[in-house]
Write a structure and sequence with these properties.
2 copies of one chain form a homodimer. Chain A has about 300 residues and is mainly alpha-helical. Chain A has a single domain, classed as Farnesyl Diphosphate Synthase, CATH 1.10.600.10. Helices cover about 70% and strands about 0% of the residues of chain A. Chain A has 16 helices and 2 strands. A two-stranded antiparallel ribbon of chain A has the order 1-2. In chain A, a hairpin with a 2-residue loop joins strand 1 (about 105) and strand 2. In chain A, helix 3 crosses helix 7 (about 115-135) and helix 4 crosses helix 10 (about 180-205). The longest helix of chain A is centred in the last third of the chain and has 28 residues, at about 210-235. Chains A and B meet through helix 3, helix 7, helix 8, helix 9 and helix 10 of A and helix 2, helix 6, helix 7, helix 8 and helix 9 of B.
């Protein structure tokens, strides 16, 4: 990790930090704390959504939107919606009846900091609020764009996307999955939202179908590379470095490509996927250089 | 009242049954069962959403849409989305860390029929799918209408609406709430989705602001009347009649207007609210007769 700091592209590091700061401000504004007795819900939503994280998904939205000269304030709103959705998925994944994890981003997970009922409701409310933000006129003046964002987002996070992937993941615990089965599971569970994040800029920018597909393909392969790198980290890093319980996927008998292929072949596959991802960016020339650097970064951060 | 009720009752009963059948078919189509390992999620979603229920909310959508000659297939899709959302809210409310209820609509609740993790995910997926259906072009050709539906729906079911109300309800257990506090809680927890259901027809029908407000006010007061009637039923009916555990709100120390005002004053208030609700329908003439009959029905069904 220390090595990474010196290897990492300084422009990427700066851009990631900038995006994280911008989306943090957006989340703070979009998730106000109310005066009523329901304030506890707002507190739990803010605890889950504002508690740090790399904001990789928001960065993707903002970078892909930048390719089409989208108003950065609009892109930041979509980035914030994606981060709300991601936060809700972590809150529910950490619940006792799911992964039963007490630690998230170096802090007690939401059901530990509050209680189980509040955590379930905070996740539910974050999902609703994410959809609301996408549909608000401030996100884009054209209702066609807003409706398309909602539609693509719902497809990414619903039963054929993220939640379906989480269902398969729960059922797969202790089962021997094949590499294609694991790949499909992860494409649904984490890949689809990353895919949407890359695609969102094209939707916001009313890009051509070809451009939208190029970004979607970039997002798909980036998401797959990211998942393998994350699984490598889980086996190699300590809990302190991770900010969440390390080694727990192995312990829970979770199927990962690292377990099936071994770390070396898994790392080679992640690198191949990251290169493939970057190849889809060709039409965008050097304006996509930060996205290319991101593809390298996601596979190198575990080194 | 009694005279009108006896005139309208058979027509209302028929219309309610028709709407329930139509929305049942729509839900069956909109929630297909997949082939993959995630089929368990689809099964749980279908179990929760297709398991009967009065379909009052879908009826409201379809009736209010009928005032503006909206294509009934479009209205049924919005009705189905509302019922998906309602089903998800019941699945999560019944969870052990919430109301811990084993019985719903005369059957084991979803976490009893499946398991807790599957129930949480089925609720999450039903919420995403509800938003997706609203944003799909089949729901309305005009993206402005679809974006408005999503926006109004999100406001109804998010932290300032349904989920916020459920949070207050959880916190209020065993607390002595005042009548205005209970009224506000219930307006959020159950009222907002009923309000949206009445308003949805006006959005679909691109009605005037005045017409949209009239239906929203109708929905608001109908929702309040409905909640009091439901609480009266809870104190009076048996578990068998209810299809869910009767008397449990009292046992859990849940604040209701019935507990605060006593059954007689609560019933009088429900009747007053139902009359107020109906008064907003005046501009729609006799085309709103079934909605008027519904306002009477919701307060009479507990008698």
């Amino acid at each position: 990790m220390a090595e990474l700091a010196s290897l990492a592209d300084p422009a990427l590091k700066r851009a990631l930090a900038d995006a994280a700061a911008i989306v943090g401000v957006a989340l703070d504004t979009l998730l106000p704390e109310s005066e009523g007795p329901e304030a506890r819900l707002d507190q739990a939503m803010r605890y889950a959504a504002l508690g740090g994280g790399k904001r990789l998904r928001a960065f993707l939205v903002m970078q892909s939107a930048g390719l089409f000269a989208v108003n950065p304030t609009c892109a930041a709103r979509v980035g914030a919606a994606v981060e709300m959705l991601h936060a809700y998925s972590l809150v529910h994944d950490d619940l006792p009846s799911m992964d039963n994890d007490d630690l998230r981003r170096g802090k007690p997970s939401t059901h530990r900091a509050f209680d189980e009922a509040t955590a379930i409701l905070a996740g539910d409310a974050l999902q609703a609020r994410a959809f609301e933000v996408l549909a608000e006129p401030d996100t884009h003046a054209d209702p066609q764009v807003r409706a398309e964002l909602v539609l693509a987002f719902a497809a990414a996070v619903g039963p054929r996307g993220m939640v379906g992937g989480q269902m398969i993941d729960m059922l797969a615990e202790g089962q021997a999955l094949t590499a294609p089965e694991v790949t499909r599971l992860q494409a649904m569970k984490t890949g689809r939202l990353i895919y949407f994040s890359a695609e969102a800029g094209a939707i916001l920018g009313r890009a051509s179908t070809a451009q939208r597909h190029a970004l979607a393909h970039f997002g798909r392969e980036l998401g797959a590379a990211f998942q393998i790198a994350d699984d490598l980290l889980d086996t190699e890093a300590s809990t302190e470095q991770m900010g969440k319980t390390a080694g727990k996927d192995q312990e829970a008998g979770k199927a990962t490509l690292v377990a099936i292929l071994g770390p070396e072949r898994a790392r080679a596959q992640a690198e191949r996927l990251a290169e493939q991802a970057a190849s889809h960016l060709e039409p965008f020339g050097e304006r996509a250089d930060l996205l290319r650097a991101l593809a390298r970064y996601v596979v190198e951060r575990g080194a």
